[in-house]
């Protein structure tokens, strides 16, 4: 079997599938970030509402929680992705060195990886040779390290996405607690938060290919518990004049 037959028999990688997977990961991260923004800010403003009904104080507390949470999420995501990116760069440097110093051993290793995926020996060798001739580092990085050297995650993009997702989620309970009249603001906030959490649970489950009901129950139960606890604590502190 010649190497010319390879493209028709064994496409080694599907850029379309990889792009779709990356998009789904970003969407799932956005849903989770929005969920965090909803729950944490709702817990904060509902807790404060248990102690006071002064709109200015509720707005100040909610805005402070929104900014603190979004900045914390962005900083944490930046550090996490930067660490991952540094590790990936180090692995690519080592792989490039091995390709320079031990090209035959690396070709044998790549052949073995394709054999483990189910290709027959001659075909695996032909695939390894053709991909090595095209881009040796990319072939080894993708097969051995599961890294695409041309698509390393940008920590600034990840931080910005986390900041935006958390902020969007946090705006809902913040606006719900300060815009309505004092007599109904708590019930409006709780209702709006629970509806938003249902949507987050459903969206996250659909993106992950899971059944929505279990995810919806988890997200709404967690949010309801957080609001109940913080409201109880706020009411207790407010009653004691703390």
List keywords for this structure.
mainly alpha, 8 helices, 242 residues, disordered N terminus, single chain, 0% strand
Helical/strand content category:
mainly alpha
Radius of gyration: 26 Å
Number of helices: 8
Residue share in helix: over 70%
Task: Please trace the helix and strand order, writing H or E for each element.
Answer: HHHHHHHH
Uncertain residue ranges: 1-18
Roughly how many Å apart are the termini?
A: 82 Å
Strand content: under 5%
Largest sheet, strands/sense/barrel: none
Q: Give a count of the beta strands, DSSP E runs of length 2 or more.
A: 0
The average pLDDT is 84
| Overall structural domain count | 1
Structural write-up:
There is one protein chain. This protein is elongated. It has helices at residues 6-9, 15-51, 55-101, 103-116, 121-145, 155-178, 185-208, 212-239. The longest helix is centred in the N-terminal third of the chain and has 47 residues, at 55-101. 31% of the residues are buried. The model is unreliable at 1-18 (pLDDT under 50). It has eight helices and no strands. By secondary structure, the protein is mostly helical. It has one domain.
């Amino acid at each position: 079997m010649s190497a010319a037959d390879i493209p028709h028999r064994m496409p080694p990688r599907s850029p379309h599938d990889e792009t779709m997977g990356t998009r789904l990961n970003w969407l799932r991260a956005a849903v989770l970030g929005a969920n965090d923004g909803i729950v944490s800010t709702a817990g904060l403003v509902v807790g404060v509402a248990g102690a006071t009904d002064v709109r200015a104080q509720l707005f100040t507390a909610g805005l402070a929680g929104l900014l603190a949470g979004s900045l914390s999420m962005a900083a944490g995501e930046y550090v996490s992705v930067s660490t991952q990116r540094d590790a990936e760069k180090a692995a690519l440097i080592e792989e490039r060195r091995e390709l320079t110093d031990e090209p035959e051993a690396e070709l044998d290793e790549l052949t073995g990886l394709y054999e483990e995926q189910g290709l027959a020996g001659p075909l695996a060798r032909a695939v390894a040779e053709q991909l090595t001739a095209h881009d040796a580092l990319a072939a080894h990085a993708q097969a051995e390290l599961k890294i695409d050297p041309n698509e390393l995650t940008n920590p600034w993009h990840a931080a910005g996405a986390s900041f935006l997702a958390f902020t969007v989620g946090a705006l809902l309970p913040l606006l719900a607690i300060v815009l309505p009249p004092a007599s109904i603001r708590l019930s409006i906030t709780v209702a709006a938060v629970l509806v938003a959490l249902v949507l987050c649970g459903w969206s996250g489950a659909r993106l992950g290919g899971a059944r929505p009901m279990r995810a919806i129950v988890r997200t709404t139960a967690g949010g309801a518990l957080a609001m109940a606890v913080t409201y109880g604590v706020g009411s207790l502190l407010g009653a004691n004049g703390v």
